[in-house]
């Protein structure tokens, strides 16, 4: 995880602002209205010192009690306006903010969906989640609150400065002396804060990555009794966050009070030099109090600039992680194919001298040649790590081959659009991943617009209708995260129903290794027979008895096809397959298995 974050490019504030402001464009009117309302709120609030001064000087000292009620009503009206404008500002600001973050998250998630499978091999889901949820939120805060605060702050500083100068230029000079210290402090903070925020964001990403990984593996943790070990690992991650946040806060703790103190110096100086002015009659007491009120209003936004700066630096660090995601080339960018697969698709598949490597150096597949005729069943066998899954993963272009070509119906898949290619391939994987929704939603994943009748038909063909109908809420039963509420055999059949509904001419079937009872096994095999009928099937077989009737069996070893033929031919050859077959005690003449061992445990 740390290495992932180390690769994130550092970007300047100008790039941050340029790319972040793009999200405000569609909501220019809301943004302007938001600022306008903030200014009105501020302006109504600023009448307070002026009216107070009037009450003190004209009403109290000038003994004009008839003006008291109108003055108080004015004050009340100003506060009312202030509250009203503020309420409207909050409404506009919230809508504006939620629109911005909605757009950001939608764009980010769309980008995540378009990233190549290879990207997900290298990035932890928890870290990606942090970028979409937290980092986008930090960026949005700058746009929504930051811009508003920046405008109102600078405006109020400018307006109040004019008022102060108009009231008493000499006192204003004294009041502004600490501003030099404030500016120097701000510059120092800006220059040094960025790296601390980068570390903080990286630490949060790493902690979330660990958290997500652990929650997904909670059963393994319990099974191995590793709760204490994982608590320790999480504590190390959380400690990383604690230390990075503390390093930010340590500086902040010294910086903010120092800046507030510097601001207070202005008040002290004004009192020091203003007091004698009142005594010698060049200033009224009301004018001095009014001046001090305005000075508070001056230093309050000046102090807010520090908070704004902190927000900006945090958002800049977050934006680097967001832009890193947005700037990663999409699958379409790398694949480039746009041609649709010619229909009707017959399902002829050819691998022509295909090589592949995950890391660009160590070959995972070498010189793979195969020719599957439409409707044929091609079985892949071999020891674990031989490259069977890698081979089938090249067919839907999850990874591009590093050498050679792959054809479907004589069309090179590298020129085909991914959408067209993948819509013609169904995958039934070992773990039959189900989404955390209802059974119905999971089956319909194969064809979102399928009718109820089509769904029921697929479900019956997959031998899962009966168990689904017996569930409390039938097809509307929620299956839990990854389908946790269903048994392995049930999940597999829901997975088969989903693939049946997709009705693709090419099927990739990664046979489940987990054993199920023989009745369920029969139901699954029966469902699979229906699924495989009239499709070109690639079956990663772990038990040889299920592939005896395959049209071709390819035996893989260290990324190469070392034997090929039918079951009988390979048995007759007396090579690796025959040995594997013997070890699994498959009845060579076609009878049932007497003992089953998965190929995972057998090395050729
Ligand atoms: N995403 C990946 N990134 C890097 N290397 C990988 C990746 N997936 C697999 N490998 C490596 O590629 C080799 C082939 O793996 P593959 O999963 O294709 O084998 P397999 O024959 O399907 O094994 P199994 O039967 O156990 O599933 C292995 O050495 C594996 O470690």
Automatic annotation (TrEMBL):
Membrane topology classification: Multi-pass membrane protein
GO cellular component, one term: plasma membrane
GO terms of biological process kind: oligopeptide export from mitochondrion
Domain (ABC transmembrane type-1): residue spans on this chain: 32-314
Keywords on record: ATP-binding, Membrane, Nucleotide-binding, Transmembrane, Transmembrane helix, Transport
Compartments where found: Cell membrane
PROSITE patterns: ABC_TM1F, ABC_TRANSPORTER_1, ABC_TRANSPORTER_2
Transmembrane intervals: 27-48, 68-88, 149-166, 172-191, 252-275
GO molecular function terms noted in the UniProt entry: ABC-type oligopeptide transporter activity; ATP binding; ATP hydrolysis activity
Residue stretches making up the ABC transporter domain: 349-583
Keyword ATP-binding: yes
Coiled-coil portions: none
Protein name (Swiss-Prot/TrEMBL): ABC transporter ATP-binding protein
Species of the source: Syntrophotalea acetylenica
Biological classification of the source: Bacteria, Pseudomonadati, Thermodesulfobacteriota, Desulfuromonadia, Desulfuromonadales
């Amino acid at each position: 995880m740390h290495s992932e974050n180390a690769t994130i490019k550092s970007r300047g504030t100008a790039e941050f602002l340029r790319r972040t402001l793009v999200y405000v464009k569609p909501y220019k009117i809301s943004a302007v209205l938001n600022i306008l309302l903030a200014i009105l709120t501020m302006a109504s609030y600023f009448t307070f010192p002026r009216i107070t001064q009037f009450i003190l000087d004209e009403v109290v000292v000038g003994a004009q009690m008839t003006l008291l009620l109108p003055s108080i009503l004015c004050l009340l009206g100003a506060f009312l306006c202030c509250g009203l404008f503020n309420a409207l500002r909050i409404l506009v600001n919230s809508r504006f903010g939620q629109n911005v973050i909605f757009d950001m998250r939608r764009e980010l998630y769309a980008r995540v969906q378009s990233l190549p499978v290879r990207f997900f091999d290298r990035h932890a889901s928890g870290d990606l989640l942090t970028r979409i949820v937290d980092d986008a939120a930090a960026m949005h805060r700058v746009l929504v609150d930051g811009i508003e605060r920046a405008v109102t702050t600078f405006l109020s500083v400018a307006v109040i400065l004019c008022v102060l100068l108009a009231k008493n230029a000499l006192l204003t000079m004294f009041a502004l002396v600490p501003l030099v210290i404030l500016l120097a402090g701000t510059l120092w903070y800006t220059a040094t804060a960025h790296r601390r925020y980068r570390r903080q964001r990286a630490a949060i990403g790493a902690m979330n990555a660990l958290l997500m990984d652990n929650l997904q593996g909670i059963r393994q943790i319990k099974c191995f009794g590793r709760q204490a070990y994982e608590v320790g690992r999480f504590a190390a991650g959380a400690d990383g966050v604690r230390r990075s946040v503390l390093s930010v806060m340590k500086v902040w703790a010294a910086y903010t009070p120092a800046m507030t103190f510097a601001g207070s110096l202005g008040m002290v100086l004004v009192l020091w030099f203003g007091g004698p002015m009142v005594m010698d009659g060049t200033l009224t007491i009301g004018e001095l109090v009014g001046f001090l009120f305005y000075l508070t209003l001056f230093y309050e936004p000046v102090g807010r600039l520090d908070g704004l700066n902190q927000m900006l630096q945090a958002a800049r660090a977050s934006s680097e992680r967001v832009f890193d995601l947005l700037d990663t080339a999409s699958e379409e960018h790398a694949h480039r194919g746009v041609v649709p697969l010619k229909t009707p698709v017959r399902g002829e598949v050819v691998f022509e001298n295909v090589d592949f490597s995950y890391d660009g150096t160590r070959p995972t597949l070498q010189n793979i040649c195969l020719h599957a005729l439409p409707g044929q069943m091609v079985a892949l066998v071999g020891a674990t790590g031989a490259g069977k899954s890698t081979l089938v993963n090249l067919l839907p272009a999850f990874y591009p081959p590093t050498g050679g070509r792959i054809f479907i119906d004589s069309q090179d898949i590298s020129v085909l659009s991914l959408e067209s290619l993948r819509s013609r391939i169904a995958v039934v994987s070992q773990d039959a991943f189900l989404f955390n929704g209802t059974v119905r939603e999971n089956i319909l994943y194969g064809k979102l617009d399928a009718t109820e009748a089509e769904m029921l038909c697929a479900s019956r063909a997959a031998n899962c209708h009966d168990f689904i109908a017996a569930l409390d809420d039938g097809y509307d039963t929620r299956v839990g995260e990854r389908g946790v509420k269903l048994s392995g055999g049930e999940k597999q059949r829901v997975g088969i129903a989903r693939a049946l509904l997709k009705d693709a001419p090419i099927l990739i079937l990664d046979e489940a290794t987990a054993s199920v009872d023989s009745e369920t096994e029969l139901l699954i095999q029966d469902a699979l027979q229906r699924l495989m009928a009239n499709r070109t099937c690639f079956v990663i077989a772990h038990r040889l008895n299920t592939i005896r009737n395959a049209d071709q069996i390819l035996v893989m070893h260290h990324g190469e096809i070392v034997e090929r033929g039918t079951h009988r031919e390979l048995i007759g050859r007396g090579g690796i397959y025959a040995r594997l077959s013997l070890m699994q005690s498959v009845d060579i003449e076609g009878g049932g298995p007497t003992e089953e061992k998965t190929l995972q445990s057998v090395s050729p």
